[in-house]
Amino acid sequence: MKDSNKFFYGWWIVLALMAVSGTAIALTITTFNIYLNQFTQSIGISPTQFALCSTIINITVMIFSPKVGKFLQAHTKKALLIFLTGFCLSYAAFSIATNIYILYVVAALFGFFSTGLTFMPPNILVNRWFIQKKGLAMSIALSGSAIFGMILSPFITYCIQNLSYQLAYQMIAGVMFAVSSLLILWVIKAKPEDIGLKAFGADEVETTSTQVNTQEEALVHLEPKVLKKKPFFWSMLAAHFLVGFVGGGIVLQLPVFLQNTFGMQQAAQFLVITLGVMIFAKVALGWLYDKLGPMKATTLVCASVLMTCIPFALAAGSDAWLLGLVGVVFWGLGNCIGTVTPAVVASQTYGQTHYGEVYGICLRFQTLGIASGVPAISMIATATGSFTLVWMICSVLAVMLLAFYAIGLRGSQAYRSRKNEEFTQPLPAAQAALITE
Question: Which residue of 41, 169, 235, 252 has the lowest C-beta tally within 10 Å?
Fold first, then answer.
């Protein structure tokens, strides 16, 4: 719905999601290991034992994501408040974990509640509020993870150094609950019809429903049990698995590679550069998904992953800083392979009715990829004594990832329709070309 005299309310929801989900993602992924040294010294465990928390969180997400997605789809605001409360309480509970057993129980609870507060809310709500500009809206909502990661990292470090890690956990949890609960209660609306609006672009879709010149509204409306019988869906799930394997593996091992190759100081500078590029890249990529379509935009992201891996594979030491700079700049866009790409491609493929559960299945495979990729990449680097083979493998997997997406998107053509009904006949050739180009 476009109105030249009004600011579409859906954009306020996008900004609220950027704060709520962006903070949750930053606390779950970006800043989680900042506590490692102080925490392990305080309760007497090893860094490896603390690192197992991330594995527990990923396993919990993998197990519960389809059910959580279904619950969020049906009871959006109620579910958001429940998951926010649980997320903040479990985050604060890390401060009272005095042994490894309590730590792992808290990590499991934190993983469960993070499932309903990180990637799912932007996917479900943006898919309802936007027909056009869906990619831009999704990428803005997800860009909060980079923004709040940059804000929270120095704040948490300051609190740990000048107060205690326990107070850092508690303060962050308290502030997040206070701000996010207000945003959920007063800003976020479950669907546009609740306040007498239509989804952004709905009017244009209605007036052009007989023309083959738009692609956003042609979606797959099959139930999950039916989707599981379709080869195209399994191709998409294979792509989501590789997204997690490659994207998650590189994200968590990149600091190690940069420090080993370029030294601590240069590595820190490179990480700041890639985070800065990432903020703008996420928003720009969403716009590109709207303009170019899922296939061309995903090709661009995979090409950026290749342009990350190739320079890194050639960088033999600190003297090759220029190759390192090229790699981290391209990784600013390539990093979106694990955030913007799976979210936007899913939103441009599946319809609203079963979206929560369907995206939960996609997230399950992506999380399985992360859980597999992180240790696999670490073991390969340890076994070979360098990251060269790692970058070569990631390059090949990036090409395979793109191929699986291409097969899945092309296969989905036969099940796309503009109406919320099971559609099993192929779309007209011209429209099918729009979807996959």
Answer: 41
